[in-house]
Amino acid sequence: MANEKVEFQVYNSMTRQKEVFIPKEPGKVKMYVCGVTSYDYSHIGHARAYVAFDLLYRYLKYLGYEVVYVRNFTDVDDKIIRRANELGEDPTALSGRYCQEFLKDMDDLQCLQPTHQPRVTEHMEQIKEMIAKIMANGCAYTINGDVYFSVDSFPEYGRLSGRKLEDNRAGERVEVDSRKKNPADFALWKSAKPGEPSWESPWGPGRPGWHIECSAMSAHYLTHSFDIHGGGMDLTFPHHENEIAQSCAACRESNISYWMHNGFVNIDDEKMSKSLGNFFTIREVTRLYHPLALRYFLLGNHYRSPVNYSISQIEIASESVFYIYQTLLDSEEALSAFQQGTETAKNAKGRVTPQAQECINKLRNELKTKLCDDLHTPTILNAALQEALKLMNSCLTILKKKQQKQQHLSASLSLTELLKEVKAVLDVLGLLAGSTCAEVLQQFKERALKRAELTEEDVLHAIEERALARKNKDFARSDQIRTDLAAKGISLMDITGTTETAWRPCVRSIQEQPAAPAQPKKSAAAVQEQPVAPSQQKQPSAAPQQEHPAAAPAQQDHPTVPPQ
């Protein structure tokens, strides 16, 4: 742990306030996060949840805790059975396939693997044992092979969501059953139906209800008393409310210290909804934008706040991450060239400049204080990190110029320490890729070409055509080439001191971004081919430009027209 003591505070949905985090067992944390129902590709709402709790997982480990992180798969459910029937596929095979697709999405988003990822179908014995305990304690009843939890048996029902019992409605995944004693009673076990997967039980063949699985699996891996239970705000009721009731009914000592919930995702200021046809899968987004851009976009908003997804926002996030990795690459290459000088600086009079040391201390302090304040990431990304990147580019400028040896040594050593600190921060945030910086930048460029519907050969041909137009003093034509490419998200960069021109991705102009309303989601098999095309909102300001890029942005060529 860091030497300076900063109390870690999290917002507890149960008490509706921020609280100092105190684990039940010193130095160890047990956390459970509700996973996906694996019947389709995961959407950006799932990305929002699992990036948020991956950040929590990473930060707890950074603070020195030994963390047991459990995230489940619901691999038997009405939705899975319905989708399997539509596709003429075995429900178990379909669910298993989408479990693997989910894991690929999580890997792309740099979410660390949880300690355990249990599946419902592999924990039927634990589920049946818990139901039996609930019945033995007089909190459930059977009707023709179905087992229902009696909410009237649990007086504290509603304490998490704040709902009164008389206002509650039945679980969202089942229709109201007139046989129930109370309309709010929910299924613990569902009797078998023809053609559906089923397991033998004391109440007859059937399968679990939705809520019981998480209670049983969390208790199996973490015991009935653990530190953190997380999920999206939409799970507060009925899912988490029901979990509390049935867990306490099975074991009176059941206790979870902190309930944490992430906010919703909106699409162009409208709540994301399958019924509105305005939701997008992770795969749809990462086909056109780097997964790091999506992660950066999500971390740019506090995890409990609503996040508004739009093309302009994801493009700005993409621009920001490209800027980060270009700065990292430029720094690595410059330091490699000055490697001998860096070693000399350590053994001679070279030292980190006071400005660089202050920046390093600020970045390190901001990481601790902001993440300790209920994982407040926006300030880190938008302030402290940007200041460090700007100073790194200033160091690069010094190394490029003819300076006294002492200035070069200080700039080199300062850049070394800044690079190390920035990478450490990116690692905690899950933004440090396993690939090289050059490889990451190339991946960004490939997606930019895909968005522009161009090949690299197309861009290089346009660069050659522009160079010829400039040579012939046809400035109107050269300006148009540059403008047309910029509108498609391709920025031309004239390399300083040469006649060469390079290119990099940039934020597209609003008129060039897809503006057609999203179409309702098609079949799961076709989901990867659907374009990411929500309508546009007013574009916010772009990410900061690199202070020391390898090439300067191409300027307007016509001498009578001022640069834009």
Automatic annotation (TrEMBL):
Compositional bias annotation for Low complexity: 513-564
EC number(s) stated in the UniProt entry for this protein: 6.1.1.16
Keyword line: Aminoacyl-tRNA synthetase, ATP-binding, Ligase, Metal-binding, Nucleotide-binding, Protein biosynthesis, Zinc
tRNA synthetases class I catalytic domain segment(s): 23-317
Cofactor(s) it depends on: Zn(2+)
Top-level taxon in the UniProt lineage: Eukaryota
InterPro entries in UniProt: Cys-tRNA-ligase, Cys-tRNA/MSH_ligase, Rossmann-like_a/b/a_fold, tRNA-synt_1_cat_dom, tRNAsynth_Ia_anticodon-bd
A Pfam family recorded for this sequence: tRNA-synt_1e
Leader peptide range in chain numbering: none
Location of the region described as Disordered in the Swiss-Prot/TrEMBL record: 511-564
Protein name: cysteine--tRNA ligase
